[in-house]
Amino acid sequence: MTDVFGDLVGQDEAVVTLRRAAASAAALLRAATPVAVGAGAPAGGGDPDGYDDLDALAEQFDEPGDPDRPGDPDRPGATADPGAPVPDAADPGAGMTHAWIFTGPPGSGRSVAARAFAAALQCVHGTGCGHCPGCHTTLAGTHADVRLVVPDGLSIGVGEMRALVLRAASTPSGGRWQIVIIEDADRLTEAAGNALLKAVEEPPPRTVFLLCAPSTHPDDVSVTIRSRCRVVPLRQPPAGAVAEVLVRRDGIAPDVAEWAAAAAQGHVGRARRLARDPEARQRRDAVLAVPRRLTGVGAAFDAASALIEAAEAEAAASVAEVDEAERAALQTALGAGGTGRGAAGAMRGAAGQLKDLEKRQKSRATRAQRDALDRALVDLAGFYRDALTMALRAPVAPVHTDTATLAAAGAQKWDAEGSLRRLEAVLECRAAIETNVKPRIAVEAMMLSLWRG
Ligand SMILES: [Zn+2]
């Protein structure tokens, strides 16, 4: 591994942003502690930049969209629309800020990016060298000033968030930054989100919040939190980069890694699953059998039902275990029948917490279904994309090498135009579901289009 950003697959733009921010953060720290800047540097008044205390340090941060922060009228971007992100061009030199959101499609490496950035901030060289104690302990999860919140049981509640915010406000023991990484920030309860917002609005001078979420859609991150954060969008990495990482990090055979990375169309986690999990391969095979099965109207409706039901089953299986664990954890936490000192207090919030949990589990189940269906549609789009490129004799590798013969037969039968129409039908179906068209209706319409051509 060259440095801490080495495992961030195919995210060149994000890495540039984060390196710049880390360098800027290191410069702020050097300026705030003049004794550290080479021998003979005069303290305080002699500092040309004048960052001789932590408040001044805080003022140097670029505060995206902070309309009511007093005392800094000269802040870059102060005249910009307070709701809008401050474009880089408007804040030259201000690469660092208190709060960040890493967004991207599942598998793009949001938490990998957040951890790498945290390591770069704690790096004794300020670069994320990957070798110093700051980098090592951060990546290993043992750095005293880095708190990682992974809501794997109950989602992050308000009590936990308040405690977290309080601890994060303390002076960093390592002399650099207090960092809080919140994975799946879309799973904060509303109250926890409000507690976090207060901290992000009035950040302690040395505290940095790194949030990870699928998107900046208000369903994922509240508009007010989003307006205080800088967004680092991650994209789906190229297949070659994914295959390389599967071989290097997961020890998967190069030919399997290449097949899986191509079939997953750049989705790191999906590629890993395809390479390792026979059930995931079976589900994909079933989806890719759809074009062969479309022999009439009845068959088209059957195929639609099969696709929807497979997505529902996959989603149910993926959330069942964690749903049950959450319910059990909540019941334990609420101390059913408990007589301890905390029992009475716990019971007061019980009804609300149960309702909150059920609501969250329902929305997670819906999302899991949509995700599973979307994965199937992406696989299907890959098949028609292969048919199209073959019909056009384009010199590109097929997405699905194992159905290339079938795609070639389709290319001959449908020609480029017919292949393109079918590809468009799949993409239209995805778009329709995204805009909340009932999945079954969208999929049935798609299957009919695929059959008719
Ligand atoms: Zn380092």
Describe the structure.
With 453 residues, the protein is mainly alpha-helical. Helix content is 56%, strand content 6%. The chain has helices at residues 12-32, 54-59, 110-122, 133-140, 158-168, 190-201, 223-227, 239-250, 254-263, 268-276, 278-288, 290-293, 297-334, 341-348, 350-391, 404-434, 439-452; strands at residues 99-103, 146-149, 178-182, 207-213, 230-233. It is globular. It starts with 11 loop residues before the first helix and ends with a helix. Zinc ion (ZN) binds at residues 123-125, 128-129, 131-132, 134-135.
Q: Can you tell me the residue ranges where pLDDT is under 50 for at least 5 consecutive residues?
A: 36-56, 65-93
Spatial order of the strands forming the largest sheet: 2-3-4-1-5
Strand content: 5-15%
Radius of gyration: 25 Å
Ligands in the model, by name, code or SMILES, are: zinc ion
